[in-house]
Amino acid sequence: MSLLIAEHLCVLRGDRVLLKDFSLVLAAGELLHLRGANGVGKTSLLETLAGLRSAGGGSLRYARDEAALHWLGHRNGLNLNLSPLENLRFWCGLNGLSGERVTAVLDQLQLPARAQRRACRSLSAGQKRRTALARLLLQERPLWLLDEPLDGLDAAGLALFARLVAQHLAAQGAVLMTSHQPLPGALRARELAL
Ligand SMILES: Nc1ncnc2c1ncn2[C@@H]1O[C@H](COP(=O)(O)OP(=O)(O)OP(=O)(O)O)[C@@H](O)[C@H]1O
Fold first, then answer.
1. How much is the pLDDT for 66?
2. What's the predicted TM-score (pTM) here?
3. Could you give the percent of the chain with pLDDT greater than 70?
4. Integer Cα distance of 45 and 108 in angstroms
5. Sequence ranges of the domains in the chain
6. What is the spatial distance between Cα 179 and Cα 163, in angstroms, rounded to a whole number?
7. 181 lines ligand 1 (CB under 6 A)
8. In angstroms, what is the span from residue 38 Cα to ligand 1's centroid?
9. What is the pLDDT of residues 108-154, one digit of tens each?
């Protein structure tokens, strides 16, 4: 089953055309790595595929609707004055989720208990990234669109991320992610170079 079908998309940034006639099919159980140099348009494409940026043409279809996808930008989307626990509970409230699993999920992301309670501005880049990744497990949507999800993660974080992706793919989810670098061996992906 295809979770995302993009046909003949035109990706824009202001009045500049970054990509023309871009087509893509992402199947359940698939990890697709979008690779390319700085400025080539990976973020703009991902935002267009997520419906966050209007396309200049072409069509975009999801298996169900936009509610099938989870978007994670490279800025993490955290309020730096709040702790990871507070951020995620607030975010759960906004998204109609109970928030009961927040501590368990942060534990699963191996964020130390003390760090879970400190303001995000005092956390390391990797700790903030783990907090942002926790949302994927709280929301459990089938299609993950992730912009530079490996940024800030150490070796243990990479291994953890690879396990989360493997579990998601085994459950018939799909992942489209960007990265400047070749992916580590634990992440076996179809690669698409822009
Ligand atoms: N706010 C903006 N206004 C106008 N042009 C922009 C803006 N942000 C980015 N661009 C331009 O759009 C192009 C694509 O940017 P984008 O961020 O999609 O690339 P990218 O491949 O994700 O880059 P990187 O690897 O550096 O994150 C770049 O040439 C960039 O200069």
1. 57
2. 0.93
3. 98
4. 30
5. 2-193
6. 18
7. no
8. 8
9. 999 999 999 999 999 999 999 999 999 999 998 999 999 999 999 99
Pocket test for ligand 1, best of 43, 178, 180 (most atoms within 8 A of CB): 43
Residue 168 CB coordination number (10 Å): 21
Which ligand 1 atom minimizes the distance to the CA of 14? Answer: 4
Dist CA 60 CA 156 (whole Å): 36
Q: What was the ipTM of the complex prediction?
A: 0.95
Contact between residue 85 and residue 117 where contact means Cβ atoms under 8 Å apart: yes
Question: What's the CA gap between 187 and 68, in Å, rounded?
Answer: 22
**How does 1-31 read in b/e, with b if 16+ C-beta sit within 10 Å?**
eebbebeebbbbeeeeebbeebebebeeebb
Q: What residue's CA is closest to ligand 1, atom 28? A: 39
Neighbour-count burial of 158, counting CB atoms closer than 10 A to its CB (0-12 exposed, 13-18 middle, 19+ buried): middle
pLDDT at position 22: 95
Answer CATH for 2-193 from 3.40.190.10, 1.20.1600.10, 3.40.50.300, 2.40.50.40: 3.40.50.300
